[in-house]
Amino acid sequence: MFVKRPVNQVVLADDTVDFLCEAHGDPAPTIRWRREEGELPRGRSDIRNDHSLRLTQVRAEDEGTYTCVSENSMGKAEASGSLQVHGKTRHNTHEYGHTRIWA
User: Which structural domains are found in the chain, ordered by start?
Assistant: First the structure.
């Protein structure tokens, strides 16, 4: 049974994001993470002591669905959250009296 589940998140590039996951059961379940679109980001993902998944310096290519898998001898349960990454904050610059927006 999930006590905390991952939720869908929208963040800016270079942000840090946490997907929460906590499950209880008897016997106590093991928890692991997977990404539907491939591997977890190498060198920028960490499964913490509370079983949450932390992604640092997120990039556009990290977008996708992250799934927490809880498993014990009684069965398996999964809960997922999606990640969307938006580009950097827009910067304004003036050129010849006109405003240009840089993405």
Answer: 2-102 (2.60.40.10)
